[in-house]
């Protein structure tokens, strides 16, 4: 048996997934709504009943079944409330007290974690007197104080101001770097998956659709969801291969473009949104299972082409600007 996490979990109708993670690694779990991300986390924690097995640090949590309270899991869950009647320090100390740690020691250890997360001076405050970012830091301290072997983060930055989330991201990255347990982080944010994680697991319909390093998953998405997250156009061919290209390499023209070395599609403009200095044009081409292609054009070109929703256009991309992978003979 080796360390880290080994899990195979089956929750009928909701999840059928196998997962391995090295000690100290951070795994981002991404996928569309309803893909099974929360089910995966709750099944690992033992909150949701699952068939299969879970092994952490060489110890089975499923044979015999280890109860929810005995699993060494730290939770930071979306919308999870702190106990309103307890101070920040007592909130953090709670899990230690429940494990029989004496009051004074629990308070000291809680204070040390609050200090580490930069909210030590707020230890006596109740949650209603904390900002969203401060409360999330207390929640993270509460998850880490019991020294879990599995840290489960479900959208840890959602609902926070951009600036607050950015600061917390840096803080959390620092803690994760020195944490030797396994972290699983559910996120809808491509940047979090790319910057905080060592591995990315893509769930779709309760199954693992793809996994790999963040760089590999971002460069070679195999699901529409990931393609959209990382801002790539990805088309699937009949042989199971994929063709990916960047929106900035797509040319929009009023008539069919010349040149045989271009892939081209006729379509209609489905939407226009600002994207950095460019205009991101969504074109419904019926090219790939109802997925719109994305093209980035300059505002001047957009005006010149008279782009507006419903306009008929051609989109094309040089074959040399595309990358194919995944199918037979491709890589
Ligand atoms: N308590 C439940 N009982 C039965 N089915 C459920 C329950 N909770 C979720 N499901 C179903 O299980 C599937 C996976 O849901 P889950 O909440 O794990 O997805 P998710 O990837 O976390 O989605 P989101 O991004 O929307 O949070 C969905 O089809 C959902 O409808």
Name the descriptors.
single chain; 331 residues; alpha+beta; Rossmann fold; OB fold (Dihydrolipoamide Acetyltransferase, E2P); six-stranded mixed sheet; five-stranded antiparallel sheet; 27% helix; binds adenosine-5'-triphosphate; ABC transporter ATP-binding protein; ABC_transporter-like_ATP-bd; nucleotide-binding; P-loop_NTPase; Mo/tungstate-bd_C_term_dom
Would you kindly provide a written description of the structure presented here, covering whatever features stand out?
The chain is an alpha+beta fold and 331 residues long. It folds into two domains: 5-222, 3-Layer(aba) Sandwich (Rossmann fold); 231-325, RNA polymerase II/Efflux pump adaptor protein, barrel-sandwich hybrid domain (OB fold (Dihydrolipoamide Acetyltransferase, E2P)), CATH 2.40.50.100. It is built from nine helices and 18 strands. It has helices spanning 37-45, 88-98, 103-116, 132-144, 162-178, 190-196, 214-219, 224-229, 299-305, and strands at residues 5-11, 15-21, 26-30, 51-56, 59-60, 73-76, 150-154, 182-186, 199-204, 207-212, 233-236, 242-245, 251-253, 262-275, 278-288, 291-297, 312-318, 323-325. The strands form four sheets. The protein has a six-stranded mixed beta sheet with strand order 6-7-8-3-9-10, sandwiched between helices. Strands 13-17-14-15-16 form a five-stranded antiparallel beta sheet. The longest helix is centred in the middle third of the chain and has 17 residues, at 162-178. It is elongated and about 75 Å long. The two termini are 33 Å apart. The protein binds adenosine-5'-triphosphate. The site of adenosine-5'-triphosphate has 9 residues, from helix 1. One of its GO terms (molecular function) is ATP binding. Residues 258-326 form the Mop domain. Keywords: ATP-binding, Molybdenum, Nucleotide-binding, Transport. Pfam families: ABC_tran, TOBE. This is ABC transporter ATP-binding protein.
């Amino acid at each position: 048996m080796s360390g880290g996490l080994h899990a195979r979990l089956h929750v009928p109708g909701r999840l059928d997934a196998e997962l391995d993670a090295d000690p100290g690694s951070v795994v981002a779990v991404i996928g569309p709504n309803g893909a099974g991300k929360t089910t995966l986390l709750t099944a690992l924690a033992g909150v949701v009943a699952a068939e299969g097995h879970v092994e952490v640090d060489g110890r089975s949590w499923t044979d015999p079944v280890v109860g929810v309270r005995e699993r060494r899991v730290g939770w930071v869950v979306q919308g999870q409330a702190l106990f309103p009647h307890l101070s920040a320090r007592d909130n953090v100390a709670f899990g230690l007290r429940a494990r029989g740690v004496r009051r004074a020691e629990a308070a000291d250890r809680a204070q040390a974690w609050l200090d580490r997360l930069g909210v030590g001076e707020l230890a006596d405050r109740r949650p209603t007197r904390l900002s969203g970012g401060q409360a999330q830091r207390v929640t993270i301290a509460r998850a880490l104080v019991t020294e879990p072997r599995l840290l489960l983060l479900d959208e840890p930055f959602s609902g926070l101001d951009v600036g607050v989330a950015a600061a917390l991201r840096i803080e959390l990255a620092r803690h994760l770097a020195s944490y030797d347990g396994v972290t699983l982080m559910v996120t809808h944010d491509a940047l979090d998956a790319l910057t905080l994680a060592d591995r990315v697991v893509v769930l779709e319909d309760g199954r693992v659709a793809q996994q790999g390093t963040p760089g590999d998953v971002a460069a070679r998405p195999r699901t529409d969801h990931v393609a959209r997250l990382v801002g790539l156009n990805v088309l699937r061919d009949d042989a199971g291969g994929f063709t990916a290209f960047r929106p900035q390499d797509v040319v929009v023209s009023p008539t069919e473009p010349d040149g045989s070395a271009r892939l081209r599609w006729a379509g209609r403009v489905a939407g226009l949104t600002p994207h950095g200095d460019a205009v991101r044009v969504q074109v419904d081409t019926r090219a790939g299972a109802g997925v719109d292609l994305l093209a980035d054009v300059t505002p001047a070109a957009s005006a010149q082409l008279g782009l507006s929703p419903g306009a008929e256009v051609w989109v094309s991309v040089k074959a040399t600007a595309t990358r194919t992978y995944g199918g037979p003979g491709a890589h």
